[in-house]
């Protein structure tokens, strides 16, 4: 057995896996095809490039499962979280980053690590037998040749869905006589002020005309092999949401709750479009939740009907990419290894987690697992009461339907529903808790237990 860990793919999961394995003292070879082979959505050759949103979502470690995952990753020495902290941009209660600065620094740090060797080039087949400790972290853009090889090995056709990319607008082209700065409920988050989003209000007539434009707009044609590919609910194109009912968007990305029009405080908006800062300079803003499969000309026409965006100039329009993942409960063991060939370990979105931080978290775990194997140490996964443990449990057997039917297993963001319920809450004597208070107490019960258990797991791991 060699001491080298080969990692295929330098996205969020592969970059974190390489860092964790190298930091554990192992020798790593990181394989990345970009630089020689392009994809349909990447713009640079940098590692951990963010091709969809620039947000890592909520950073609230006490009340939100994603914020809890952030904090666990920080405690575990995550490269992704450390660099995100340095390149964060205002985003209310969320953690969002300057995408170019973030990926450039990830690339620089990995390139400078003495334990990591970078090899540019596409891995087209199942790695040779003398690569006896491999992490495949190729994510949603696994090359067609490698995906085919994995399918042939596992006997699986693989499940797939589309991730959709939101458009980005130049800040100076937004009409601030109609739009205003405000975070929902004036919430202050990491690097934020409570006025971190640009808000564009719509009255009922404007909203209805916008919905009609979305539904009538010319959409991207699918290739034959893509026609039956389902969408993931966490990243639905906006026009697909609109097709579910005319009021759907008002209760989703265009909900007006918690926002007051600074130009006309007495009039409640019927719907609100929010834009979030996308780079450190504050020159670019992405339209939150507006992933789309509209053709480019249609995007420009429809989005310019939004009050405040009539003269908008777009740095990038929306688009689509296909995401492929394994039927992991059937194929992977609790160490993220392929049961058919345990020398092959998988990490990131290809395992059936969804989201930047979830992918990086599984890379973190895979890197540590691989390093422990090389070094002859046992590795116990974090308990299912933690965010990391809950994700591992979901993709390796916690899902209720681990049958021959692949369609029963779907990608999942971290959420409290993946964790065992905490003990029943005790009601203070003589006091009835409101529904809101119960919800807060329930979330705190999940997060406080998770933090305690994660710290204990770390101590046990040494």
Q: Specify the structural class.
A: alpha/beta
Q: Which CATH architecture of the largest domain is right?
A: 3-Layer(bba) Sandwich
Which CATH class of the largest domain applies here? Alpha Beta
Task: Calculate the mean pLDDT score and round it.
Answer: 88
Major beta sheet, specifics? Answer: 6 strands, antiparallel
Helical residues, percent: 25-40%
Count of separate DSSP helical elements: 12
Low-confidence sequence ranges: 400-407
Task: Indicate the CATH topology of the largest domain.
Answer: FAD/NAD(P)-binding domain
Domain module tally? 2
Say which CATH homologous superfamily of the largest domain is assigned.
Answer: FAD/NAD(P)-binding domain
Q: How much beta, percentage-wise?
A: 15-25%
How many DSSP-defined strands? Answer: 16
- What does the radius of gyration come to? 22 Å
Choose one word for the global shape.
globular
Order of SSEs:
EHEEHHEEHEEHEEEEHHEEHEEHEHHH
């Amino acid at each position: 057995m060699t001491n080298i860990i080969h990692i295929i793919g330098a996205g969020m999961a592969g970059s974190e896996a390489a860092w964790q394995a190298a930091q554990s003292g192992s020798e790593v070879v990181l394989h990345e095809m970009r630089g020689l082979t392009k994809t349909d959505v990447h713009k640079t050759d940098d590692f951990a490039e963010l091709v969809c949103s620039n947000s890592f979502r909520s950073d609230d470690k006490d009340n939100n499962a994603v914020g809890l995952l952030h904090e666990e990753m920080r405690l575990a020495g995550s490269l992704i979280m450390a660099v995100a902290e340095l390149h964060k941009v205002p985003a209310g209660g969320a953690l969002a980053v300057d995408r170019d600065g973030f990926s450039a620094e990830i690339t620089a740090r990995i390139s400078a690590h003495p334990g990591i060797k970078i090899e540019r080039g596409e891995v087209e087949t199942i790695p040779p037998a003398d690569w006896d400790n491999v992490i495949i972290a190729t994510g949603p853009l696994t090359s067609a040749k490698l995906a085919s090889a994995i399918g042939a090995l596992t006997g699986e056709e693989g499940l797939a869905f589309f991730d959709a990319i939101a458009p980005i607008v130049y800040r100076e082209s937004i009409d601030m006589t109609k739009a205003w700065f405000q975070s929902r409920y004036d919430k202050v988050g990491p690097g934020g002020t409570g006025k971190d989003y640009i808000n564009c209000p719509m009255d009922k007539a404007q909203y209805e005309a916008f919905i009609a434009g979305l539904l009538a707009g010319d959409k991207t044609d699918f290739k034959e092999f893509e026609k039956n590919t389902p969408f993931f609910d966490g990243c639905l194109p906006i026009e697909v949401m609109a097709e579910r009912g005319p009021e759907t968007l008002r209760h989703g990305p265009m909900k007006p709750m918690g926002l007051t029009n600074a130009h006309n405080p007495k009039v409640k908006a019927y719907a609100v479009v929010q834009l979030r800062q996308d780079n450190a300079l504050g020159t670019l803003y992405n339209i939150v939740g507006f992933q789309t499969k509209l053709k480019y000309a249609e995007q420009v026409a429809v989005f310019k009907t939004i009050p405040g965006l009539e003269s908008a100039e777009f740095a990038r329009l929306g688009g689509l990419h296909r995401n492929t993942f394994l039927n992991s409960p059937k194929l992977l063991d609790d160490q993220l290894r392929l049961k058919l060939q345990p020398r092959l370990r998988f990490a990131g979105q290809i395992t059936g987690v969804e989201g930047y931080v979830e992918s990086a978290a599984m890379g973190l775990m895979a890197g540590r697992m691989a390093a422990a194997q090389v070094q002859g140490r046992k590795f116990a996964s974090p308990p299912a009461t933690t965010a990391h443990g809950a994700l591992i449990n979901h993709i390796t057997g916690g899902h209720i339907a681990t049958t021959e039917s692949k369609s029963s297993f779907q990608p999942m963001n971290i959420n409290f529903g993946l964790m065992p319920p905490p003990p029943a809450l005790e009601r203070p004597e003589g006091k009835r808790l409101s529904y809101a208070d119960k919800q807060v107490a329930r979330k705190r019960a999940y997060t406080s237990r998770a933090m305690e258990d994660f710290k204990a797991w770390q101590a046990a791991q040494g």
